[in-house]
Amino acid sequence: QVQLAESGGGLVQAGGSLRLSCAASGRTYSPISMAWFRQAPGKGREFVAVISWSDGRTNYADSVRGRFTISRDNAKNTMYLQMNNLGPDDTGVYYCAARSGGFGTTVSTYGYWGQGTQVTVSS
Description:
By secondary structure, the protein is mainly β. The chain has no helices and eleven strands. The strands form two sheets. Strands 2, 4, 5, 6, 9, 10 and 11 form a seven-stranded mixed beta sheet that branches. Strands 1-3-8-7 form a four-stranded antiparallel beta sheet, with no helix packed on it. A hairpin with a 4-residue loop joins strand 7 and strand 8. It is globular, with a radius of gyration of 13 Å.
């Protein structure tokens, strides 16, 4: 079993920054892709960013490209999301996810999920 644990959420003013972390633990596991998703109140879970564990390739949702940066530390089994120039539309619960089937951006294709961390951006 693989466990994912997010941290780093909080309350920030518009224009501010936050850095989220996602630590993977449990059985020896080398995911193919890890990703961040978010869910705003009353909305579905949406893709934010994904990173390939092997070569570091990344992809971003259009809404965050240029503001957010996803990265990983293979030695620590930890993924990060640096979020800059945050706006109220970035408010939501941020989830990290892992999969072993390739470079994906779809919620249903990820088998491992963290419990989520709340990000609130005030205007």
